Amino acid sequence: MTDLDSLRKTLLDEIETAQNLDDLEQLRVAVLGKKGQITKRMKGLGALEPEARRNQGAALNTLKEEISRAITERGRVLGDSALNARLLQERFDMTLPPRPETEGRIHPISQTLGELLQIFGAMGFAVAEGPDVEDDFHNFAALNIPPEHPARQMHDTFYFPPDASGERRLLRTHTSPVQIRTMRAAKPPIRIVAPGRTYRRDSDITHTPMFHQIEGLLIDRGTHMGHLKGCLFDFCRAFFELDEVPLRFRPSFFPFTEPSAEVDIGCAREKDTIRVGAGADWLEILGCGMVHPKVLEHCGIDSSVYQGFAFGLGVERVAMLKYGIPDLRTFFEADLRWLRHYGFLPLDVPTLTGGLS
Fold it and tell me: How many Å apart are CA 195 and CA 128, to the nearest integer?
């Protein structure tokens, strides 16, 4: 046993003084390898008497386990030290200015969303968000959309396979479910805008399967159509950065608003370009209306006390109109040349005082 104690002390000292992982690996092989010191001693147990073989074998196994643990622990320490040294050597200063050719751009959709939120935020609207995957109640039923409505059909909506209960969830076709969730969770007065991605089965020069919407909702006592019109007039003046913007409200139909209207903005068409403002033509930009009493009742709001208005517009549509982008599909093609042309500098943060665009 005295011999093993001496060997133990020697090996632990050598392990502790190993300077790197290579030296430690060489030591491990010299001690625990096929021809290592402990391995040779264990092979020699067969020549001992049974009692001595049993005692010596137990002592060697204990020593082997202790040395293995010591090597593992020393390897962890040396590994951490080597990693830290490598990180110090290979560190990269992120504060260095970028090369001009790698200068980034803010995508027009992100910039336009920032402009919209800046405008509605200044009007007192809070931002509300909800899930992209919805159920039938929030996306259709609570919005007074009947079961036979074409919007529920598979040719217009992305449905998921039925779950165990038979319910089919779907990718939301508008951000209106956020309005429903807000009205069910909060008490009036309510004033929110709901930006986000929406999904429909459509793809051409003016439609994509995924696009962005922003919808507004205001619920309060005594709210009327004049409040809605004033809100949209102020929004269009601010967004298009014009003192006077001609707007036209045309009667329309939406299941979730009554009365409903589509809003056209005055414009002038010159060859392949459209200029917003006074002109001989009109271009539809959004839909709006007074919240239907049934929608209020679905959300637990007394429609005899509270009224509200809602509106919704496509982010890509108004971005195309404001910045002269001719094809909706180019928003999603990840073309760096297109982004360098239509993109915005990262410091061009939209503000009502400093300018939106």
Answer: 8
Over residues 268-280, the pLDDT tens digits come to 877 777 778 777 7
Asked if 216 and 230 count as a contact pair (C-beta separation under 8 A), the reply is no
- Average pLDDT value for residue range 99-124: 87
- Helix (H/G/I), strand (E/B), else coil: 258: strand
* 215-267: pLDDT as tens digits: 999 999 999 999 999 999 999 999 998 888 889 999 999 999 999 999 999 88
Distance separating alpha carbons of residues 195 and 313, to the nearest angstrom = 10
Q: Any residues with CB less than 8 A from the CB of 94 and at least 6 apart, and which?
A: none
Asked if 264 and 283 touch (Cβ cutoff 8 Å), the reply is yes
Type of residue found at 174: H
Q: Where are the domains of the chain?
A: 2-90, 108-342
The helix (H) or strand (E) run that includes residue 119 is helix 108-122
d(CA 355, CA 276): 18
The SS3 call for residue 121 is helix
> Of the ranges 31-35, 189-193, 294-298, 314-318, which one carries the lowest mean pLDDT score?
31-35
Q: Is the dihedral of CA 287, 288, 291, 292 positive or negative?
A: negative
Residue 267 corresponds to which tokens in the numbers above?
Answer: 């414009």
Closest CA to 300 of 193, 221, 185: 185
The H or E element spanning position 195 is strand 190-199
Strand spans (E) along 132-280: 133-134, 170-171, 190-199, 210-220, 247-254, 257-270, 273-276
The architecture that CATH gives domain 108-342 is: 2-Layer Sandwich (3.30)
What is residue 212's predicted lDDT score, i.e. its pLDDT?
94
At residue 66, the 3 state secondary structure works out as helix
Q: Is 97 exposed, middle or buried (0-12, 13-18, 19+ CB in 10 A)?
A: exposed
Residue 137 one-letter amino acid:
F
Q: Determine the Cα–Cα distance for residues 350 and 352; give it in Å rounded to an integer.
A: 7
